[in-house]
Amino acid sequence: MGVSSPTSPASNKLIRTQAFTSLQPASSSETLARKGFGELEVERRGTTDQRVGLPAAAALEVLDLGLTTTDLNIARAATAVVISYSFFARGDTGANAAAGRLVVDGGGIHFSEDAKNLPRTAPKTLTAPWPADSSVHGRCPHALLRRFLALREAAWQDAGKPAPAALWQMPWDASQPVPSCVGAWLAKLLGILSVTAPPGVKYTGHSLRGGAASAALAAGVSLPAICRWGLWTALDSIMLYFDPLVDDTPAAQIFFAHLVRRLAGSVQ
């Protein structure tokens, strides 16, 4: 399928939509790794918050859009939102994601943590294997990331420039994306999909963090696993993100089944 790109020759362009506008006390570097969308969860204690977590079903709609769109800006935005959701919207997999640290291959999606960002946490390479159900291999974060990486490489080759370290930066960007871009991309995508929040609440970039945490918990992921992948270090902090009324759904399983610890007897 062809994909429109601002750098492609006019004869090869497809119709494009308008580009988008663009715990314990932690050290400043670790805070930046956990600081998705310019907001700190520890600042939220005791405050009224009208934001609500993004349901896994809505995140899956974004994924589907990213897999089918012919617009490179939408493909970039959808992939950034889906990957952020998959990693609980931690800052180093959001706008600050580095191309060399987030890859996908036959073994799954691999994210290599940077020790400079995690002085209080031993860095690891976090791996999300491909879904055990092969029927969804074409409809999962892995497939979307693989598609975007191929499109991104082609776009930079067409521009005659080497791809930068910033994963979400494209040749037509004046500068690399900043945390607020992910929230703006989410708002644009939800508008395209006609997805709205319930009355009295709203979806923002930070809704990815709470929505992912609630969906993972409902899917059967343990609290320690959610804390480690999302870089929460205080229970009173992560509890602010959980919605106990969220049910397990097929969409939640697509995003988080790999984090569910299964008993030895249940492994096929």
Task: Give the structure's gist in a few sentences.
The protein has 9 helices and 3 strands; from the N terminus they run αααβββαααααα. The chain is mainly alpha-helical. The radius of gyration is 18 Å and the shape is globular.
Write the layout of secondary structure elements.
Layout: H1 28-34, H2 56-68, H3 72-86, E1 102-105, E2 108-112, E3 125-128, H4 141-159, H5 179-193, H6 207-219, H7 223-230, H8 235-238, H9 250-256
Antiparallel strand pairs: 1-2, 2-3
Helix pairs in contact: 2-3, 2-4, 2-9, 3-4, 3-5, 3-6, 6-9
Report the CATH architecture.
Answer: Orthogonal Bundle
Count the beta strands. Answer: 3
| Average pLDDT figure | 84
User: Which spans have pLDDT < 50 for at least 5 consecutive residues?
Assistant: 7-30, 35-48, 264-268
Strand order of the largest sheet: 1-2-3
Name the helix and strand elements from N-terminus to C-terminus, one letter apiece. Answer: HHHEEEHHHHHH
What would you give as the CATH superfamily?
A: Intergrase catalytic core
The first-level CATH class name: Mainly Alpha
Please give the largest β-sheet.
3 strands, antiparallel
- How many domains is the backbone divided into? 1
Taking the alpha carbons of the first and last residues, their distance comes to 37 Å
CATH topology: hpI Integrase, Chain A
What radius of gyration results from the CA coordinates?
18 Å
Number of helical segments? Answer: 9
Beta-strand content estimate: under 5%
Give the CA-based shape.
Answer: globular
Percentage of residues in helical conformation: 25-40%
Q: What structural class do the secondary elements suggest? A: mainly alpha
